[in-house]
UniProtKB/TrEMBL annotation, chains A, B:
PANTHER family: AMINOPEPTIDASE (PTHR46112), XAA-PRO AMINOPEPTIDASE P-RELATED (PTHR46112:SF2). It holds the Pfam family Peptidase_M24. This is Xaa-Pro aminopeptidase. It comes from the Bacteria. SUPFAM superfamilies: Creatinase/aminopeptidase, Creatinase/prolidase N-terminal domain. Residues 7-171 form the Creatinase N-terminal domain. Residues 179-378 form the Peptidase M24 domain. The lineage of its organism: Bacteria, Pseudomonadati, Pseudomonadota, Alphaproteobacteria, Hyphomicrobiales. GO terms for molecular function: aminopeptidase activity. It comes from Rhizobium loti (Mesorhizobium loti). Keywords: Aminopeptidase, Hydrolase, Protease. The keyword Protease applies. CDD domains: APP_MetAP.
Length: 397, 397
């Protein structure tokens, strides 16, 4: 299971919630395992999970009739399903021998609701939550939906719950960590594949193609592919262009795909031939910062403390003027999960958090350097999810 | 330019709007050419375009400081830029020789606003729109933003504008049609590549990998990859699995990537070896429906009329019980642009619309068959964007 159920139950109890409703794609998938294609690739399509408190009944997926095939075909954790809208399909007598088809047909026999909000209202009312305290993930609802809900459930107390769910998602289950481990490795192998085509005259787009092809070959889906050469490596969000690579130039990767819906976000620096000594010096300071984080991170330490320590080390080790708002963040179904490693964070690290620790450094017009590792907070310290050490990768000429 | 500016101006005049504010990723990119990475790959990050009526000044991009590199590196159409938030970067003396770096530095010298809404309020006030009638694309704002705007601009009349912008986007410019033509061809080439690995024992995932790799090689980004064999082809949103291909089975593709942000959505049926005669018979009816649409579509015809005609032809040509809610939709930056070819649509086709015309037919437990073509509505009829004719592709054994 993706969901950290004890943590969700605890937060719900703390907040006095009778139920939580997931509405954003990452929360729906997180709470049920259900991945609703239309919701993930477009804005607007609605799918929900209603998750009642322990004594209030079973969780329920609410989704459009046109996506019931995905419910049938996926390993979803919710006990109940509710559908809305119509979508035509015929029944073949052959369906008997096809378990997914059978399940699909059964789901299609459920009574349809008019639309997503009507289904949600019915779901809450049938679960006798019509005068409860409901936490609603406000991030996935369409404009006006929250108001419509409030109007149709006048006795419900509604509290926004996106922040609560983000907090729950921060501590990963083993199942999630396994996916994150795999997607981190896929990102590293994809960097290696990209560097396989790095030579004088190769373009950023050449490397990006090789990167994403490897990501696909390894079973993941491309998402982030910031790959920049030379002065373009200083563009934080650099999108690959036909800029050609020259000897001695920096190649910055800030990259990562999705594997079974879980994101990677890692950064590595390479150079074509030997790196300029100054780049090596600066990069060493950045790497020391990440290495120091790996040494000090353990459960119970404050995120803000990690931030201060990493900044201090980078500044001491070679970049006295180093400035950052944060030196890392959680990662999971979203590329920026909790916690944030920043000076003003009040978060405390917990066992099972998966973090991207990063020390980017941008000199506009010259180069951008960056180390970003993925790691798990373990009881005894850190488990790095990386196969490479974060040193500059000098591609032989 | 992506934007159909005369159409936008006309709709704004009709609606009595002094300005329109784009907030959803597709509308921001559409109105300015600006593609803000964080907004496209996550939910939450904000970027806007303020587009005043003709006599009200120049359009303005509002985006976070951390994305100014993308503004500098992209061919954006808006004359003004406004930034919010901080993001640290150093200035290299080398920046002088780097035009993108120079532009980036200049943008970073703009005064920062505290957050997205503060920047938007300032932008509207400075453009003397503080007591105007503003159309706000409600689909990209975070929860509570619309209320915050209304509170901070008490003299502004706010009207939701997502529907208006969708209507504007429905009639494509030449620049857009060029991208759509290319992405449609990439989808077809990717189907061809996938069929290149179709053989007894190949899995859906094998074909999906070959499909997405070709999409990447052709310069596009994977989005939609529904590829199903046999009884799994009847799952509308089928996600590739390790199901193995057998002789004579249906392979259904409902697929398409993004090329320069523009979507493809096409469907083709293949079989390993000769198709079953019954599949051929049903498929012929579906193909006739799409072919008939291509014959009758022209500017001035009602979307609902096309729907009725396509349904009539499919029913007459071999599937008397054929039922659908729609037989097609527009396509562009979003996978479902206006118009919708449905019985209850009040839309009328116009020159320059780009449509996906489709006749899917699902027999749960047996197979799914589908033809989906992309085409442009031209003054004299239809320009198909497809290289293939839509017949069943029989892969030789």
């Amino acid at each position: 299971m993706l969901l950290n159920e004890p943590r969700l139950r605890q937060r719900m109890t703390d907040a006095g919630l009778d139920a939580v409703v997931a509405t954003a794609p990452e929360n729906v998938t997180y709470m049920s395992g259900f991945w609703a294609l239309p919701q993930w690739i477009r804005r607007g399509p609605q799918a929900y999970v209603v998750w009642p408190a322990s004594n209030r009944g079973a969780p329920e997926i609410i989704t459009s009739t046109s996506t019931l095939d995905l419910v049938a075909d996926q390993d979803v954790g919710a006990a109940k399903v509710r559908r809305f809208g119509e979508f035509h399909a015929e029944l073949s007598p052959n369906a008997v021998g096809d378990p997914v088809g059978q399940e699909h047909l059964q789901l299609r026999r459920l009574p349809p609701h008019r639309d997503a909000i009507a289904a949600l209202v019915a779901g809450l009312e049938e679960a006798r939550l019509g005068n409860g305290h409901i936490g609603i993930d406000e991030t996935g609802l369409a404009s006006g939906h929250l108001e419509a809900l409030a109007a149709r459930l006048p006795n419900v107390k509604i509290t926004p719950a996106a922040a609560l769910l983000r907090e729950v998602r921060a501590v990963k289950t083993d199942h999630e960590i396994d996916r994150l481990r795999q997607v981190a490795r896929i990102a590293e192998r994809s960097i290696e594949a990209a560097l396989g085509v790095a030579k004088v005259g190769a373009t950023e787009l050449d490397l990006a193609r090789a990167f994403h092809v490897q990501t696909i070959e390894d079973g993941a889906f491309p998402v982030l592919g910031c790959i920049g050469f030379g002065e373009r490596s200083a563009l934080m969000n650099v999108q690959p262009s036909d800029r050609r690579l020259r000897i001695g130039e920096i190649i910055r990767f800030d990259v990562g795909g999705r594997f079974h819906h879980y994101r990677a976000d890692v950064a590595r620096i390479a150079t074509l031939g030997e790196p300029p000594p100054e780049a090596r010096r600066l990069h060493r300071a950045l790497l020391r910062g990440v290495q120091h984080a790996c040494e000090i991170i353990r459960p119970g330490i404050a995120a803000s403390h990690v931030f201060g320590e990493v900044m201090r080390v980078v500044q001491r080790e070679g970049i006295p003027h180093y400035r950052r708002d944060h030196v890392g963040h959680g990662i999971g179904l979203d590329g920026y999960d909790a916690p944030t490693l920043s000076s003003n964070s009040s978060e405390v690290l917990e066992e099972g958090m998966v973090l991207c620790v990063e020390t980017p450094y941008y000199e506009i017009g010259r180069w951008g350097l960056q180390v970003e590792d993925m790691l798990v907070v373990r009881s005894g310290g850190v488990e790095r999810l990386m196969a490479t050490d974060g040193e500059i990768i000098a591609v032989p000429l």
